[in-house]
Write a structure and sequence with these properties.
about 160 residues, Ferritin, about 0% strand, elongated
Length: about 160
Amino acid sequence: MLKINWFKLITSIIICQLAGIIGSFFTAKSVSNWYLTLNKPSFNPPGWVFAPVWTLLFLLMGISLYLLWQKGFKRSKSALYAFTGQYILNIAWSFCFFYLQNPLAGFIEIIILWIFIILTIISFYKIKPLASYLLFPYLAWVSFAALLNFMLYYLN
């Protein structure tokens, strides 16, 4: 029987959802004006897609973090460092792309973020494989976002 520590689960989810909330402070102003003026590729999703996708991805990230926490952070310091790195880089992308209104800086930053997600997946896998599997949709979305970011840079 799986015993759930609700405090750890809810805390982990809130921590991850905070990345989206913090990122939205950098995004809010530009998304309604500057971003609308950019030339976009044909595969650019409609604006309403981003919030639910990111909410789901941060939920999966929170569950993944919870599974790692259940194993104990002392045992998984390198995994926690990788996770913290990708978490900070996730927020930093919104700053680079939207706040600075700089698609090139955003593209460079998202490549580094992508690498840190891979490192997080690898390090989580060594401790709790399910925790790493929950991050695959995040990796897929950031891969798509990197392509989209590059095209926004290229077209503008």
